[in-house]
Amino acid sequence: MNPGTVKIAHISDLHLLGKPDRRQLNNLDRMLDHFNNDGFDHLVISGDLSSNADKQDWVSVREKLEKHGLFHWEKSTVIAGNHDLINLEEEMRFYNALNPFSWMKEQAFNRKLAEFSIYFQELVTGREKGSASFPYIKILQYPSLSVAIAVLNSVYPWHPADNPLGARGLISIGQLRAMSLPDTVRSVKDCFVIGLCHHAYKVYGTDALIDQAFDWTMEMKNREEFLKVMKLMNADVVLHGHFHRFQSYKVNGITFINGGCFRYDAKRYSRLEITGKGNFTQQFLSLA
Ligand SMILES: [Fe+2]
Ligand SMILES: [Fe+2]
Q1: Cβ 37 vs Cβ 7: under 8 Å
Q2: Would residue 1 count as lying in a domain?
Q3: CATH label of the domain that carries residue 21
Q4: Which end of the chain is more exposed for a tag (fewer CB within 10 A), N or C?
Q5: What Cα–Cα distance (Å) separates residue 229 from each residue in 115, 149, 223, 242?
């Protein structure tokens, strides 16, 4: 391998089930060991660390990253998925019992996102203190090239009519605008640019009505606007999770990589090898 190659590991959708989930945590240990032994430069986890929005699962992931020396700004990037921020059962119960105003729900959602960001602040802002929020750009300098990870939150609050499973995605206009600012675009001009969010650009249904209904509950509502911003930033790849398939596909010249689901296959991961702006190879690999 060319010594100037930057290696990025990507896993997604761990869907841990609270503290008793020993088996999955052991699997995570094995995977993180492998990333260290194989000399990966950076790890991306694209959301749904938890299955039931249980903070204990965030704690478990952080502990594992710390144990393996990966809980550092330059070593890992972690984002939230819908299952980290939305407990569907609670949402429905609360809605039925109290019928709260939507602004209250939005506030509670924003609080949970802020909590996640603060808990993983070392990976989000590189500082222990200070407020963290989306979007942000992480620029990683390597001897041979710079890599910019443009991170957006695509999870938005549960709503009985518009987001009944809490699984639809939306990237706020504010985030898209921030990423479109001329200064932002200029700041990543010479970098290999990686876009990152939880939701998929593409969900793979068929034309059958049942699939279309399923797609609707999972889709990123404003994916075309998101794609435009990724084009503007000259993104080379976009990493995501959410739709539990290990798969890559191309849209308008950009390669989208779906990190699949660690819960379904805890041996599989995506390896991205970057040799320069626009030059990379990607593979899904399995541990022996
Ligand atoms: Fe998921
Ligand atoms: Fe998800």
Answers
A1: no
A2: no
A3: 3.60.21.10
A4: C
A5: 27, 14, 10, 20
98, 90 contact by CB (below 8 A):
no
User: Residue type for 210, please?
Assistant: I
Distance from Cα 203 to the centre of ligand 1, integer Å: 13
Answer yes or no: are the C-beta atoms of 122 and 72 closer than 8 Å. yes
Domain count, the chain: 1
The reported pLDDT for the residue numbered 160 is: 76
Averaged confidence pLDDT in the chain: 90
The total of other beta-carbon atoms located within 10 Å of residue 82's CB is 25
In the predicted structure, residue 128 carries a pLDDT above the cut 60: no
Whole-number pLDDT of residue 218: 85
3-state secondary structure 246-259: EEEEEECCEEEEEE
Q: Say how many Å lie between the CA of residue 201 and the centre of ligand 1.
A: 14
Tokens of 121: 């602040």
Judge whether 189 and 233 are in contact, CB under 8 Å: no
The span from the CA of 212 to the CA of 33, in Å, is 40
Tell me the ligand closest to 198's alpha carbon.
Answer: 2
Domain range enclosing 100: 6-286
| 98 has pLDDT over 80 | no
The 10s digit of each residue's pLDDT in 210-222 is 666 677 788 899 9
252 CA distance to ligand 2 centroid (A)? 24
Please give the distance, rounded to the nearest whole angstrom, from the Cα atom of residue 59 to the centre of ligand 1.
18
In a domain? residue 124: yes
